[in-house]
Specification:
Helix content is 11%, strand content 50%. It has 429 residues and is mainly β. Strand 18 and strand 19 form a beta hairpin.
């Protein structure tokens, strides 16, 4: 490679050569930040889903439908992002329009704002932001125990775009010489008043939170805090460090105070209890010489249910869908599902493993991958092989299969689907 001094001499030589306008021209405006940016994509997706009508969750979701073993779903998405760049102010908005249709349901969302707002930067080290934002706290790939002020990821597809919350945030950065090279302080307010952020929690609160970022001893470190309000008071810590150019290690730890958990007893009585759970994640990312990227993570969900508590709920579900069950019992089962029992990964201990290869066997523009998510306590798991192709400009093709395995009364065995096959094409502009 050409050294930096040689590059400078070469550049000076070119500048001093007398040339006409036709022979050489340089337009600095082409490299300046554009006043207006517009981008997005159009996506079409087709899914074939193998259902499990014998599972209670099928009856709760589709109470008036006869048993059906396969479901075909078509989805169209338009995703648009616009940005206006001024001297020290950036205004942006990101929205989606989605149309989904299957045998049971038709969904239309034409004015769904994912995020957007105004960011004012009066100095290079300071900025103020107001709007709907996703903060992306944490270093984990599939889970983020310290994601106190954001919606949870989908471990089956962690890169899926998530909707933000309305908030006010500030960012202040300082650089130093020494073992601590960078410090960034990010205070945040996530208000919950009337119809503002109803999905964040109940009650009228400002919900202040703070993240302190440090680049210390070549390690990325975050210290995080959320006040008591619409959500439980929480503190957390995360880190990420490159052990070598091929190996990275990361982790998270979160502690919550007075977290309220709704638990079902074998008698059928529910109780709301307050606890101070600890959640943690430890993971690695490794790149092999053959350009295969491995991601492995262990996740302990301190807010989750143990296998005994989950079995109690599954038994209650079985009783609620019997023909002689009373309507109140069925309604209670639905409420328990929504309160946490049927959310993604409601258990305590999980393992995530993903391997993706960049253009293996000289398959240009092709990336195959496989992902495994396992509930360690009950032995159920999900395997997702997939392949993507980007050989056509601005276009991505992707196909994947989600294969679930588990006995009755296990997490992945009690899902509404046993298999899911999907293919989509996305055009970016």
């Amino acid at each position: 490679m050409t050294s930096i001094p040689t590059r400078l001499l070469l550049l000076l030589f070119i500048i001093t050569i007398p040339v006409s306008a036709e022979e050489f021209s340089f337009d600095a405006s082409e490299y300046e930040k554009k006043t207006f940016d517009f981008s997005g994509y159009i996506e079409g997706k087709q899914e074939a889903i193998q259902l499990q009508p014998e599972r209670p969750v099928y009856t709760f979701i589709y109470p008036d439908e006869p048993p059906r073993h396969w479901l075909n779903r078509s989805t169209g998405t338009v995703d648009l992002t616009g940005k206006i760049n001024m001297t020290n102010v950036v205004t942006d908005i990101h929205g989606q329009a989605v149309y989904a249709e299957d045998t049971f349901v038709t969904t239309k969302e034409y004015d769904h704002i994912m995020d957007g707002g105004i960011r004012w930067s009066p100095a290079t080290y300071y900025s103020l932001d107001v709007g709907k934002r996703v903060q992306r706290w944490g270093k984990g790939y599939a889970w983020n125990p310290v994601g106190f002020i954001e919606r949870p990821k989908d471990p089956a597809d962690p890169q899926t775009v998530r909707e933000g919350f309305n908030m006010l945030s500030m960012e202040w950065t300082q650089t130093f010489n020494g073992n601590i090279r960078t410090l960034t302080l990010t205070p945040v307010l996530v208000p919950t008043y009337n119809n503002l952020n109803p999905d964040f929690g109940n009650g009228k609160y400002l919900n202040p939170a703070v993240k302190l970022y440090l680049l210390a001893w070549d390690t990325d470190i975050d210290l995080l805090w959320l006040s008591k309000g619409a959500r439980a008071q929480s503190i957390g810590f995360d880190f990420s460090r490159n052990i070598s150019s091929e190996l990275e290690i990361h982790g998270e730890w979160a502690h919550q105070y007075g977290f309220e958990k709704n638990t079902l007893a074998s008698s059928g009585i529910t109780s709301l209890s307050a606890d101070n759970p600890d959640s943690a994640l430890l993971g690695i990312r490794y790149l092999t010489a053959h350009e295969v990227t491995w991601i492995a993570e262990y996740y302990h969900n301190g807010r989750g249910y143990n296998t005994t508590e989950l079995n109690t709920f599954y038994n209650f579900e079985d009783q609620a869908v019997r023909t002689d069950a009373i309507a109140a019992q069925q309604q209670k089962a639905k409420q328990l599902m929504q309160s946490g029992y049927s959310k993604a990964n409601p258990g305590e201990n999980y393992f995530y493993l993903r391997a993706s290869a960049n253009e293996p066997f000289d398959w240009l523009y092709t990336t195959p991958a496989i992902t495994i998510i396992s509930h360690l306590d009950d032995g159920s798991f999900q395997v997702t092989p997939e392949i993507s192709y980007t050989g056509i400009p601005n276009t991505e093709f992707r196909a994947r299969a989600m294969l679930l395995s588990g006995n009755q009364h296990t997490e992945f065995g009690e899902k509404i689907s046993r298999q899911r096959f999907e293919i989509y094409v996305r055009y970016l502009f």
